Amino acid sequence: MLVGILCALGAGLMWGLVFVTPVLLPDYPGIVLSFGRYIAFGLIALVPAWIWRRQIATLSRADWGVAFRLSLVGNLLYYATLASAIQLSGAPLPTLLIGTLPVVITIVSNTAPGHAADAVAWPRLLPALAVIATGLLLVNASELERLDDSHTLTQYLQGCGLALLALAAWTWYPMNNARFMKAHPQIRSSTWATAQGLAMLPVVLPGFVLYGVIAHVSGGSYAFPLGPRPALFIGMMLLIGLCASWLGTMLWNHASQRLPTSLAGQLIVFETLSALAYAFLWRGEMPSVQVLAGIALLVVGVILAIRTFRRPA
After folding, report:
1. DSSP summary character for residue 313
2. Which residue among 8, 137, 217, 224 has the highest number of C-beta atoms inside a 10 angstrom radius?
3. Are the beta carbons of 84 and 31 closer than 8 angstroms?
């Protein structure tokens, strides 16, 4: 279990980077950031795919179909909506809506577990969920007070809507990915991460070109293909393509094979904590006492969740 928890922590540290990228590149549409990230992911995946070509060759047609669906929803759709939400409403609110994932995934996976061993009696699970939910409420309330003139109420609400779509996509992805990994223990986590990167290339490459054509015809302001800051754009896409997409996915696959789905769902709080830390570092300020209290409750909730799953039923 410890290895699984550490892998989930590593994945959270990697995934937190994706929340900062739209803030660093505010003049790049969310769909461009999503295309850029997964083009980089797919191209990077070509290297381990060649090294581990024997393992890749063992994947069936059905496996590739699952990899494609997981990548389409959990990668392309998720990041396009998340990046757009961050640009419309600022980084904190989408970060914190996504931060409800530990509660949402745990409730869904415990209600309809993929395996009986994944389920935990609700009276044992509710204390950890309550502590995590309280922590999220504290941090959300603090961030809502920061709404200022840089984002209109309309933009804020649009950002909320897109963040909820991202939440739905990112709820579906880790649950289904975890269930696939447990049902196919013979597939290495690194092989499966690589397959997901490869599965997106036939979609994102022509999709990016199509976006450029549409933007040109409609008179869009985006300077296709690399935008106004090509060096920073390429650098960030390679960074999150390697760290957040390939390495983060591989670490999460490790965790998914070793942990109950309900526990793994709660450990996605590591992503929220990492994203908050990166956001406050970018702002150059310390979190308020209320935010720190919320973060402390999130950590306590995770500890309670781990203890719940370690105790015999």
Report:
1. -
2. 8
3. yes
